[in-house]
Amino acid sequence: MFRFRLDGSSGVPPYLQLVHQVRQALLLGYLQEGDRLPTVKDVAADLVINPNTVVKAYRQLEHEGLTGGRPGQGTFITATSSPVPPAAHQDLRASLEAWLRAAGEAGLDDEAVTALIAVARQDLKQDLKKERV
Amino acid sequence: MTQDDADGSVPALRTDRLGRRYGKMWGLRDCTLEVPAGAVAAVVGPNGAGKTTLLEMIIGLLEPTEGRVDVFGQTSRADTAGSLGRVGYVAQDHPLYRDFTVADMFHLGRAMNPSWDQNLADVRMDALSIPVNRKIRRLSGGQQAQVSLTMALAKRAPLLVLDEPVSSLDPVARLDFMRDVMAIAADQALTFLISSHVVAELERYCDWLIILSAGHVQLAGPADDLLAAHQLLTVPRATLDADLPGTAIQRTDSDRHSTVLVRAGADQFAGYGRPGWQADPVSFEQLIMAYLQRRPSPRSYDNPAPAAERPGTPAKEVTR
Questions:
Q1: Which CATH architecture has domain B4-223?
Q2: Does the beta-carbon distance from B183 to A118 stay under 8 Å?
Protein backbone atom coordinates (compact mmCIF):
# COMPACT_ATOMS: atom_id res chain seq x y z
CA MET A 1 0.00 0.00 0.00
CA PHE A 2 1.24 3.47 -0.90
CA ARG A 3 2.24 5.54 2.11
CA PHE A 4 2.35 9.31 2.27
CA ARG A 5 4.79 11.42 4.24
CA LEU A 6 4.62 15.01 5.39
CA ASP A 7 7.36 17.59 5.59
CA GLY A 8 6.36 20.12 8.21
CA SER A 9 9.06 22.62 7.29
CA SER A 10 8.65 22.74 3.50
CA GLY A 11 6.09 25.56 3.49
CA VAL A 12 4.04 23.60 0.94
CA PRO A 13 0.43 23.13 2.15
CA PRO A 14 -0.13 19.54 3.37
CA TYR A 15 -2.82 18.75 0.78
CA LEU A 16 -0.48 19.83 -2.03
CA GLN A 17 2.30 17.68 -0.59
CA LEU A 18 0.00 14.65 -0.87
CA VAL A 19 -0.94 15.57 -4.46
CA HIS A 20 2.73 16.04 -5.40
CA GLN A 21 3.66 12.67 -3.93
CA VAL A 22 1.09 10.83 -6.05
CA ARG A 23 2.14 12.72 -9.19
CA GLN A 24 5.79 11.99 -8.48
CA ALA A 25 5.15 8.33 -7.71
CA LEU A 26 3.28 8.02 -11.03
CA LEU A 27 6.15 9.68 -12.83
CA LEU A 28 8.66 7.34 -11.24
CA GLY A 29 6.49 4.27 -11.66
CA TYR A 30 5.98 3.60 -7.94
CA LEU A 31 2.25 3.93 -8.49
CA GLN A 32 0.51 2.25 -11.41
CA GLU A 33 -2.96 2.02 -12.82
CA GLY A 34 -5.27 0.02 -10.58
CA ASP A 35 -3.28 0.64 -7.38
CA ARG A 36 -5.45 1.54 -4.44
CA LEU A 37 -4.62 4.57 -2.30
CA PRO A 38 -5.01 4.27 1.48
CA THR A 39 -8.34 5.34 2.97
CA VAL A 40 -8.83 8.89 4.22
CA LYS A 41 -8.97 7.63 7.79
CA ASP A 42 -5.75 5.64 7.43
CA VAL A 43 -3.86 8.62 6.00
CA ALA A 44 -5.29 10.95 8.67
CA ALA A 45 -4.23 8.62 11.49
CA ASP A 46 -0.91 7.65 9.89
CA LEU A 47 0.28 11.22 9.31
CA VAL A 48 -1.77 12.71 12.18
CA ILE A 49 -3.42 15.20 9.84
CA ASN A 50 -6.87 16.58 9.31
CA PRO A 51 -8.98 14.13 7.26
CA ASN A 52 -10.43 17.07 5.28
CA THR A 53 -6.89 17.71 4.01
CA VAL A 54 -6.75 14.16 2.65
CA VAL A 55 -10.22 14.53 1.12
CA LYS A 56 -9.09 17.73 -0.57
CA ALA A 57 -5.96 16.08 -1.97
CA TYR A 58 -7.94 13.07 -3.25
CA ARG A 59 -10.49 15.40 -4.86
CA GLN A 60 -7.71 17.31 -6.59
CA LEU A 61 -6.17 14.06 -7.89
CA GLU A 62 -9.55 12.96 -9.21
CA HIS A 63 -10.02 16.37 -10.83
CA GLU A 64 -6.66 15.95 -12.57
CA GLY A 65 -7.81 12.59 -13.88
CA LEU A 66 -5.17 10.63 -11.99
CA THR A 67 -7.51 8.74 -9.69
CA GLY A 68 -11.09 7.59 -9.49
CA GLY A 69 -13.29 6.52 -6.62
CA ARG A 70 -15.16 3.23 -6.59
CA PRO A 71 -18.04 3.39 -4.13
CA GLY A 72 -17.32 1.34 -1.05
CA GLN A 73 -13.93 0.24 -2.31
CA GLY A 74 -11.75 3.32 -2.13
CA THR A 75 -9.65 5.50 -4.40
CA PHE A 76 -7.76 3.94 -7.29
CA ILE A 77 -5.12 5.13 -9.71
CA THR A 78 -6.69 5.47 -13.15
CA ALA A 79 -3.92 7.21 -15.09
CA THR A 80 -2.48 4.83 -17.66
CA SER A 81 0.94 6.43 -17.89
CA SER A 82 2.84 9.36 -16.53
CA PRO A 83 1.45 12.72 -17.76
CA VAL A 84 4.79 13.53 -19.41
CA PRO A 85 5.89 11.10 -22.16
CA PRO A 86 8.97 9.21 -20.96
CA ALA A 87 11.11 10.41 -23.89
CA ALA A 88 10.29 14.08 -23.28
CA HIS A 89 10.90 13.54 -19.60
CA GLN A 90 14.32 12.04 -20.31
CA ASP A 91 15.30 14.86 -22.70
CA LEU A 92 14.26 17.55 -20.21
CA ARG A 93 16.16 15.85 -17.46
CA ALA A 94 19.30 15.56 -19.60
CA SER A 95 19.25 19.24 -20.55
CA LEU A 96 18.57 20.22 -16.94
CA GLU A 97 21.52 18.14 -15.77
CA ALA A 98 23.73 19.81 -18.36
CA TRP A 99 22.54 23.21 -17.19
CA LEU A 100 23.10 22.32 -13.53
CA ARG A 101 26.62 21.14 -14.35
CA ALA A 102 27.34 24.45 -16.13
CA ALA A 103 25.92 26.38 -13.16
CA GLY A 104 28.13 24.45 -10.78
CA GLU A 105 31.22 25.09 -12.91
CA ALA A 106 30.32 28.80 -12.95
CA GLY A 107 30.41 28.78 -9.15
CA LEU A 108 26.69 28.77 -8.29
CA ASP A 109 25.82 26.82 -5.18
CA ASP A 110 22.45 25.12 -4.52
CA GLU A 111 20.93 28.24 -3.07
CA ALA A 112 21.99 30.43 -5.99
CA VAL A 113 20.63 27.85 -8.43
CA THR A 114 17.27 27.79 -6.63
CA ALA A 115 17.08 31.59 -6.53
CA LEU A 116 18.00 31.88 -10.22
CA ILE A 117 15.37 29.32 -11.21
CA ALA A 118 12.73 31.13 -9.13
CA VAL A 119 13.53 34.49 -10.69
CA ALA A 120 13.68 33.08 -14.23
CA ARG A 121 10.41 31.23 -13.77
CA GLN A 122 8.71 34.37 -12.47
CA ASP A 123 10.06 36.53 -15.32
CA LEU A 124 8.96 33.92 -17.84
CA LYS A 125 5.47 33.91 -16.34
CA GLN A 126 5.29 37.69 -16.68
CA ASP A 127 6.49 37.54 -20.30
CA LEU A 128 3.98 34.84 -21.19
CA LYS A 129 1.24 36.93 -19.62
CA LYS A 130 2.25 39.99 -21.68
CA GLU A 131 2.33 37.90 -24.87
CA ARG A 132 -1.19 36.75 -24.21
CA VAL A 133 -2.51 40.29 -23.73
CA MET B 1 -17.64 14.89 7.15
CA THR B 2 -16.13 17.29 4.66
CA GLN B 3 -16.75 20.99 4.47
CA ASP B 4 -18.67 20.61 1.24
CA ASP B 5 -21.17 18.27 2.80
CA ALA B 6 -22.12 21.14 5.07
CA ASP B 7 -22.93 23.51 2.21
CA GLY B 8 -26.33 24.99 2.65
CA SER B 9 -26.82 23.38 6.03
CA VAL B 10 -26.65 24.97 9.44
CA PRO B 11 -23.13 25.87 10.58
CA ALA B 12 -21.82 24.01 13.62
CA LEU B 13 -21.00 27.31 15.25
CA ARG B 14 -22.10 30.85 14.59
CA THR B 15 -21.41 33.85 16.80
CA ASP B 16 -22.87 37.27 16.17
CA ARG B 17 -21.26 40.32 17.77
CA LEU B 18 -20.56 38.17 20.78
CA GLY B 19 -19.03 39.92 23.79
CA ARG B 20 -18.31 39.37 27.44
CA ARG B 21 -17.34 42.05 29.93
CA TYR B 22 -15.56 41.46 33.24
CA GLY B 23 -16.20 44.60 35.29
CA LYS B 24 -14.91 47.41 33.10
CA MET B 25 -12.78 45.15 30.91
CA TRP B 26 -14.03 43.35 27.84
CA GLY B 27 -12.66 39.80 27.70
CA LEU B 28 -14.05 39.42 24.20
CA ARG B 29 -15.96 41.83 22.00
CA ASP B 30 -17.55 42.09 18.59
CA CYS B 31 -16.82 38.47 17.81
CA THR B 32 -18.63 37.40 14.65
CA LEU B 33 -17.64 34.13 13.04
CA GLU B 34 -18.87 30.88 11.60
CA VAL B 35 -17.48 27.35 11.59
CA PRO B 36 -19.06 24.81 9.19
CA ALA B 37 -20.08 21.35 10.31
CA GLY B 38 -17.27 18.83 9.90
CA ALA B 39 -14.46 21.34 10.30
CA VAL B 40 -11.52 21.02 12.63
CA ALA B 41 -11.10 24.64 13.71
CA ALA B 42 -8.16 26.06 15.64
CA VAL B 43 -8.51 28.98 18.03
CA VAL B 44 -5.14 30.65 18.57
CA GLY B 45 -4.10 33.73 20.48
CA PRO B 46 -1.83 34.89 23.28
CA ASN B 47 -2.85 34.56 26.92
CA GLY B 48 -5.66 36.96 27.70
CA ALA B 49 -6.76 37.15 24.06
CA GLY B 50 -10.23 35.88 24.93
CA LYS B 51 -9.87 32.22 23.91
CA THR B 52 -11.25 30.69 27.09
CA THR B 53 -13.95 33.37 27.29
CA LEU B 54 -15.09 32.41 23.79
CA LEU B 55 -14.99 28.68 24.49
CA GLU B 56 -16.87 29.00 27.77
CA MET B 57 -19.67 30.97 26.11
CA ILE B 58 -19.89 28.34 23.37
CA ILE B 59 -20.26 25.47 25.83
CA GLY B 60 -22.80 27.42 27.90
CA LEU B 61 -20.59 27.86 30.95
CA LEU B 62 -20.55 31.64 30.67
CA GLU B 63 -23.40 34.03 29.81
CA PRO B 64 -22.59 36.56 27.03
CA THR B 65 -22.79 40.24 27.95
CA GLU B 66 -23.89 41.03 24.42
CA GLY B 67 -24.44 39.26 21.14
CA ARG B 68 -25.22 35.59 20.74
CA VAL B 69 -23.71 32.21 20.05
CA ASP B 70 -25.55 29.49 18.12
CA VAL B 71 -24.51 25.85 18.08
CA PHE B 72 -26.14 24.01 15.16
CA GLY B 73 -28.71 26.77 14.90
CA GLN B 74 -29.69 26.82 18.55
CA THR B 75 -28.65 29.61 20.87
CA SER B 76 -26.41 28.57 23.76
CA ARG B 77 -27.47 29.78 27.16
CA ALA B 78 -25.63 29.20 30.36
CA ASP B 79 -26.95 26.48 32.63
CA THR B 80 -29.42 24.89 30.27
CA ALA B 81 -29.27 21.18 29.65
CA GLY B 82 -29.94 21.71 25.94
CA SER B 83 -26.83 23.83 25.44
CA LEU B 84 -24.65 21.49 27.46
CA GLY B 85 -25.86 18.45 25.53
CA ARG B 86 -24.88 19.82 22.13
CA VAL B 87 -21.27 20.45 23.05
CA GLY B 88 -18.65 18.06 24.38
CA TYR B 89 -15.92 19.79 26.33
CA VAL B 90 -12.38 18.75 27.18
CA ALA B 91 -11.02 21.28 29.65
CA GLN B 92 -7.41 22.36 29.72
CA ASP B 93 -6.15 20.39 32.71
CA HIS B 94 -8.46 17.40 32.21
CA PRO B 95 -10.29 17.94 35.51
CA LEU B 96 -11.25 14.49 36.71
CA TYR B 97 -11.87 13.30 40.25
CA ARG B 98 -8.49 11.88 41.07
CA ASP B 99 -9.74 9.35 43.62
CA PHE B 100 -12.46 8.07 41.30
CA THR B 101 -11.85 5.07 39.11
CA VAL B 102 -12.37 5.41 35.36
CA ALA B 103 -15.60 3.42 35.78
CA ASP B 104 -16.75 5.88 38.50
CA MET B 105 -16.14 8.80 36.12
CA PHE B 106 -18.19 7.07 33.43
CA HIS B 107 -20.95 6.38 35.96
CA LEU B 108 -21.03 10.10 36.71
CA GLY B 109 -21.14 10.89 32.99
CA ARG B 110 -24.02 8.48 32.50
CA ALA B 111 -25.96 10.07 35.36
CA MET B 112 -25.45 13.57 33.99
CA ASN B 113 -26.01 12.98 30.27
CA PRO B 114 -29.21 11.47 28.91
CA SER B 115 -27.52 10.63 25.61
CA TRP B 116 -24.53 8.91 27.22
CA ASP B 117 -23.06 6.10 25.10
CA GLN B 118 -21.56 3.58 27.54
CA ASN B 119 -20.59 1.20 24.74
CA LEU B 120 -18.46 3.89 23.09
CA ALA B 121 -16.70 4.57 26.40
CA ASP B 122 -16.02 0.86 27.05
CA VAL B 123 -14.80 0.18 23.52
CA ARG B 124 -12.41 3.15 23.63
CA MET B 125 -10.92 2.20 27.00
CA ASP B 126 -10.44 -1.33 25.72
CA ALA B 127 -8.78 -0.14 22.50
CA LEU B 128 -6.48 2.16 24.49
CA SER B 129 -5.73 -0.55 27.10
CA ILE B 130 -6.83 1.70 29.96
CA PRO B 131 -8.16 -0.44 32.87
CA VAL B 132 -11.52 1.01 33.96
CA ASN B 133 -11.07 -0.11 37.59
CA ARG B 134 -7.92 2.00 37.97
CA LYS B 135 -8.03 5.28 39.86
CA ILE B 136 -7.56 8.46 37.82
CA ARG B 137 -4.48 9.55 39.78
CA ARG B 138 -2.71 6.33 38.82
CA LEU B 139 -3.12 7.02 35.11
CA SER B 140 -0.48 8.77 32.99
CA GLY B 141 -1.12 12.28 31.68
CA GLY B 142 -1.85 10.88 28.24
CA GLN B 143 -4.33 8.36 29.65
CA GLN B 144 -6.09 11.08 31.68
CA ALA B 145 -6.40 13.14 28.51
CA GLN B 146 -7.90 10.10 26.77
CA VAL B 147 -10.42 9.58 29.59
CA SER B 148 -11.40 13.27 29.32
CA LEU B 149 -11.83 12.98 25.56
CA THR B 150 -13.83 9.77 25.97
CA MET B 151 -16.14 11.49 28.49
CA ALA B 152 -16.77 14.22 25.90
CA LEU B 153 -17.25 11.72 23.03
CA ALA B 154 -19.64 9.52 25.00
CA LYS B 155 -22.02 12.47 25.34
CA ARG B 156 -22.61 12.03 21.62
CA ALA B 157 -22.48 15.79 21.13
CA PRO B 158 -22.00 16.98 17.53
CA LEU B 159 -19.55 19.75 18.52
CA LEU B 160 -16.43 19.02 20.55
CA VAL B 161 -14.53 21.86 22.20
CA LEU B 162 -10.97 21.06 23.28
CA ASP B 163 -9.21 23.71 25.36
CA GLU B 164 -5.43 23.25 25.09
CA PRO B 165 -5.93 19.48 25.01
CA VAL B 166 -2.26 18.53 24.63
CA SER B 167 -0.43 21.31 26.45
CA SER B 168 0.30 19.12 29.49
CA LEU B 169 1.36 16.08 27.46
CA ASP B 170 4.80 14.92 26.35
CA PRO B 171 5.46 14.87 22.58
CA VAL B 172 4.65 11.18 22.10
CA ALA B 173 1.43 11.31 24.13
CA ARG B 174 0.55 14.51 22.28
CA LEU B 175 0.95 12.83 18.90
CA ASP B 176 -0.99 9.73 20.02
CA PHE B 177 -3.82 11.91 21.31
CA MET B 178 -4.06 13.95 18.12
CA ARG B 179 -3.79 10.79 15.99
CA ASP B 180 -6.86 9.56 17.80
CA VAL B 181 -8.69 12.88 17.30
CA MET B 182 -7.90 12.85 13.56
CA ALA B 183 -9.17 9.24 13.22
CA ILE B 184 -12.37 10.21 15.05
CA ALA B 185 -12.79 13.25 12.80
CA ALA B 186 -12.45 10.97 9.75
CA ASP B 187 -14.88 8.42 11.12
CA GLN B 188 -17.69 10.48 12.57
CA ALA B 189 -19.58 13.58 11.55
CA LEU B 190 -18.14 15.70 14.34
CA THR B 191 -16.97 19.29 14.42
CA PHE B 192 -13.92 20.16 16.49
CA LEU B 193 -12.92 23.48 17.99
CA ILE B 194 -9.41 23.26 19.41
CA SER B 195 -7.57 26.03 21.21
CA SER B 196 -3.81 25.67 21.24
CA HIS B 197 -0.51 27.34 21.96
CA VAL B 198 1.40 24.86 19.84
CA VAL B 199 1.24 26.89 16.65
CA ALA B 200 3.70 24.80 14.66
CA GLU B 201 1.58 21.65 14.83
CA LEU B 202 -1.75 23.27 14.02
CA GLU B 203 -1.38 23.19 10.25
CA ARG B 204 -1.61 19.42 10.28
CA TYR B 205 -4.77 19.33 12.35
CA CYS B 206 -6.90 22.24 11.28
CA ASP B 207 -8.75 23.30 8.16
CA TRP B 208 -10.28 26.36 9.80
CA LEU B 209 -8.39 29.06 11.63
CA ILE B 210 -9.51 31.69 14.15
CA ILE B 211 -6.88 34.15 15.41
CA LEU B 212 -7.83 36.09 18.53
CA SER B 213 -5.89 38.97 19.99
CA ALA B 214 -6.79 41.60 22.59
CA GLY B 215 -10.36 40.36 22.79
CA HIS B 216 -11.02 40.63 19.06
CA VAL B 217 -11.05 38.32 16.07
CA GLN B 218 -8.07 39.29 13.91
CA LEU B 219 -8.50 36.68 11.21
CA ALA B 220 -10.92 33.79 10.66
CA GLY B 221 -11.77 31.47 7.81
CA PRO B 222 -10.72 28.35 5.89
CA ALA B 223 -6.99 27.86 6.49
CA ASP B 224 -6.13 27.25 2.82
CA ASP B 225 -8.01 30.38 1.68
CA LEU B 226 -6.30 32.49 4.33
CA LEU B 227 -2.89 31.17 3.27
CA ALA B 228 -3.64 31.87 -0.40
CA ALA B 229 -4.67 35.42 0.50
CA HIS B 230 -1.24 36.22 1.96
CA GLN B 231 2.21 36.46 0.44
CA LEU B 232 5.67 37.35 1.62
CA LEU B 233 6.99 40.08 -0.69
CA THR B 234 10.62 41.08 -0.88
CA VAL B 235 10.77 44.62 -2.27
CA PRO B 236 13.23 47.56 -2.41
CA ARG B 237 13.35 49.38 0.92
CA ALA B 238 11.96 52.59 -0.62
CA THR B 239 8.70 50.88 -1.57
CA LEU B 240 5.77 52.43 0.25
CA ASP B 241 3.08 50.25 1.79
CA ALA B 242 0.61 52.14 -0.38
CA ASP B 243 2.36 50.81 -3.51
CA LEU B 244 2.04 47.20 -2.41
CA PRO B 245 -0.81 45.03 -3.58
CA GLY B 246 -3.24 44.71 -0.67
CA THR B 247 -2.58 45.43 2.99
CA ALA B 248 0.78 45.19 4.74
CA ILE B 249 0.35 43.04 7.85
CA GLN B 250 3.96 42.88 8.99
CA ARG B 251 6.99 44.65 7.59
CA THR B 252 10.67 44.07 8.28
CA ASP B 253 13.03 46.70 6.86
CA SER B 254 16.66 45.99 5.99
CA ASP B 255 19.18 48.49 4.58
CA ARG B 256 18.15 48.07 0.95
CA HIS B 257 15.17 45.77 0.93
CA SER B 258 12.07 45.10 2.96
CA THR B 259 10.14 41.91 3.60
CA VAL B 260 6.43 42.48 3.87
CA LEU B 261 3.73 40.00 4.71
CA VAL B 262 0.85 41.21 2.56
CA ARG B 263 -2.82 40.35 2.52
CA ALA B 264 -4.61 40.62 -0.82
CA GLY B 265 -6.87 38.80 -3.23
CA ALA B 266 -5.29 36.35 -5.69
CA ASP B 267 -5.94 38.72 -8.62
CA GLN B 268 -4.04 41.49 -6.86
CA PHE B 269 -1.02 39.24 -6.41
CA ALA B 270 -1.17 38.08 -10.02
CA GLY B 271 -1.15 41.62 -11.37
CA TYR B 272 1.59 43.33 -9.38
CA GLY B 273 4.50 42.39 -11.69
CA ARG B 274 7.46 44.61 -10.76
CA PRO B 275 11.04 43.75 -11.67
CA GLY B 276 13.16 43.08 -8.60
CA TRP B 277 10.23 42.02 -6.47
CA GLN B 278 10.04 38.53 -5.18
CA ALA B 279 6.88 36.85 -3.93
CA ASP B 280 6.94 33.78 -1.71
CA PRO B 281 4.09 31.81 -0.21
CA VAL B 282 3.48 32.28 3.50
CA SER B 283 3.70 29.33 5.85
CA PHE B 284 0.95 28.61 8.33
CA GLU B 285 3.22 29.47 11.25
CA GLN B 286 4.44 32.71 9.65
CA LEU B 287 0.86 33.78 9.06
CA ILE B 288 -0.23 33.15 12.64
CA MET B 289 2.88 34.73 14.16
CA ALA B 290 2.51 37.84 11.99
CA TYR B 291 -1.03 38.42 13.27
CA LEU B 292 -0.13 37.58 16.86
CA GLN B 293 2.83 39.98 16.87
CA ARG B 294 0.84 42.72 15.21
CA ARG B 295 -0.29 45.63 17.30
CA PRO B 296 -3.76 44.50 18.37
CA SER B 297 -6.28 46.05 16.07
CA PRO B 298 -9.62 47.08 17.53
CA ARG B 299 -11.34 46.25 14.27
CA SER B 300 -12.40 42.83 13.24
CA TYR B 301 -10.80 41.20 10.22
CA ASP B 302 -13.03 38.17 10.18
CA ASN B 303 -14.85 39.24 7.04
CA PRO B 304 -12.34 38.89 4.24
CA ALA B 305 -13.15 42.17 2.54
CA PRO B 306 -10.79 42.87 -0.35
CA ALA B 307 -7.93 44.93 0.96
CA ALA B 308 -8.47 47.44 -1.84
CA GLU B 309 -11.64 48.54 -0.07
CA ARG B 310 -9.62 49.70 2.89
CA PRO B 311 -7.25 52.31 1.54
CA GLY B 312 -4.73 53.61 4.00
CA THR B 313 -5.26 50.87 6.54
CA PRO B 314 -2.62 51.58 9.17
CA ALA B 315 -0.54 48.44 9.25
CA LYS B 316 2.98 49.74 9.20
CA GLU B 317 4.38 47.74 12.02
CA VAL B 318 8.14 47.52 11.79
CA THR B 319 9.78 44.57 13.43
CA ARG B 320 13.44 44.33 14.42
A1: 3-Layer(aba) Sandwich (3.40)
A2: no
